[in-house]
Amino acid sequence: MENGSTDKEIITRVLKGDQRAYEVIVTRYQSFVFTIALRYTKNREDAEELAQNAFIKAYRCLNDYRGDAKFSTWLYTIVTSLCLTFLRKKKLQVHSIDQDHVFELADQQDAGMRANMVEEKSKIKMVNDAIALLPPDDAKLLLLFYKGEQSLEEIGLILGIQPNNAKVKLHRARQKLREKMEQHFAVEVEDYINS
């Protein structure tokens, strides 16, 4: 199986009956899907289950993919929908970024993250932890742009905003991420720079 194939080529093969070709899609997007699910659930086991369910649902609905946008955009919508349904069923509290206590909760979560950082000095984990401290809209923008490799136009479509607005919001989200990294992970960042 050629991993250099485009998503559309792979999807065409799957729709023609080559079910094994779908493994390339799963491999290509498993980290992206898991990261989105983990962002919503804050629980590894739930995120793994939701990621698996997202790939199953995407496979079953592959005929519905029209190709108007990137496959990752379509997949993002499926994952997000499953996560929101999961949260509603679990009746977990979903916070608005307009509520002041969201920032307090993020700071409280930081204490647990610091212990994990001592044990596991992973650059990816450190960045993901810093993203988790951001308001949900900022985290979503960063995940779409960097993990999902979405263009500003695609991000605008997903979020219902203009591409220029997406660019401004992305710039601000990067600044907030830098501040969180400096505030909460200064030692780890210094270790990576000096290593």
From TrEMBL:
Gene Ontology BP, a term: DNA-templated transcription initiation
Superkingdom: Bacteria
InterPro entries (alphabetical): RNA_pol_sigma-70-like, RNA_pol_sigma-70_dom, RNA_pol_sigma70_ECF_CS, RNA_pol_sigma70_r2, RNA_pol_sigma70_r4_t2, RNA_pol_sigma_r2, RNA_pol_sigma_r3/r4-like, WH-like_DNA-bd_sf
PROSITE patterns noted in UniProt: SIGMA70_ECF
Pfam name, any one: Sigma70_r2
The RNA polymerase sigma factor 70 region 4 type domain, residue ranges: 127-177
Gene3D superfamilies assigned to the protein according to its UniProt record, in alphabetical order: 1.10.1740.10, Winged helix-like DNA-binding domain superfamily/Winged helix DNA-binding domain
Name the UniProt record assigns to this protein: RNA polymerase sigma factor
